[in-house]
Amino acid sequence: MRKLILGLAISLDGYIEGPNGEYDWCFTDQDYGLNEFFGQIDALFIGRKSYQIAQQYAEQAKGDIVPGMPKITEYVFSNTLTTVKEEAILIAGDAIAQARKIKAQPGKDIWLFGGASLTATLMQHQLVDELWLSVHPILLGNGKLLFQEQASRTNLQLLESKTYPTGLVSLRYAIVH
C-alpha cells in the first residue's frame, strides 16, 4: 500500500502560515531534499484553500506550484469547488473513503501537501503514514498552526534528521499506528 506523507515547511513554533497566510519566511535558496522526495511520489493530496493559494502562486511561477515538481496526479479535496484545473481530480463527498481507495491503488507514495483541515481529518482517521517537516529557524508567533487539538496522542518514530547550514532542520517521522 502507498504511504501518505505529510511534507511541509513549519516554523519552530509550529506554524505553517503567518498571520496573513504568508509563507515568505520559507527558505527557497536550495533543494532541501525535495528532488529526492519527488522521486518517491506520484500523487498529491491538497485541500481547497491550499489548492486555491497554490494556483495563484502557480500563475505567477509559470505553472509550478512547487519549483521543479514533476508531473504528478493532484487530488483536490473539496465539497465546495465544482471544477479544478484539467490535470487535477476533484474529490468531493466521503474524503476518507476516497483517500483509502487512492492509497490502495498501485503507485508511488502520496504527498499530503496541505491544508490544515484536510491534514487534521486524515490524521484523525490514521491515514497519514509519515511526517516530513522542514523546521525553519523562525518564531512566527501567530498564524495557522499545523496541528490542532487531538483526541489522543500520536506516537512517532524518527526515521531521519538532517541539519542544513541555514539552520533549517529536516525531520522525518513514521507514525506508529
Which structural traits does this protein have?
alpha/beta, 8-stranded mixed sheet, two-stranded antiparallel ribbon, 33% strand, globular
Number of helices: 4
Rg computed from alpha carbons, rounded to a whole number of angstroms: 16 Å
The share of residues in helices is 10-25%
State the major sheet: 8 strands, mixed
The neighbouring-strand order within the major sheet is: 5-4-3-6-1-7-10-9
What's the average pLDDT? 92
- By DSSP, the count of extended strands is 10
Class by helix and strand content? alpha/beta
pLDDT below 50 for ≥5 consecutive residues: which ranges?
none
User: What does the overall shape look like?
Assistant: globular
Rounded to the nearest angstrom, the distance between the terminal CA atoms is: 15 Å
Portion in beta strands: 25-35%
H and E string:
EEHEHEEHEHEEEE
How is this structure best described in words?
The protein has helices at residues 34-38, 48-60, 95-104, 116-124; strands at 4-11, 15-17, 41-47, 73-77, 88-91, 109-114, 130-136, 144-145, 155-163, 169-176. It has 177 residues and is an alpha/beta fold. 24% of the residues are buried. The strands form two sheets. An eight-stranded mixed sheet has the order 5-4-3-6-1-7-10-9. The longest helix has 13 residues, at 48-60.
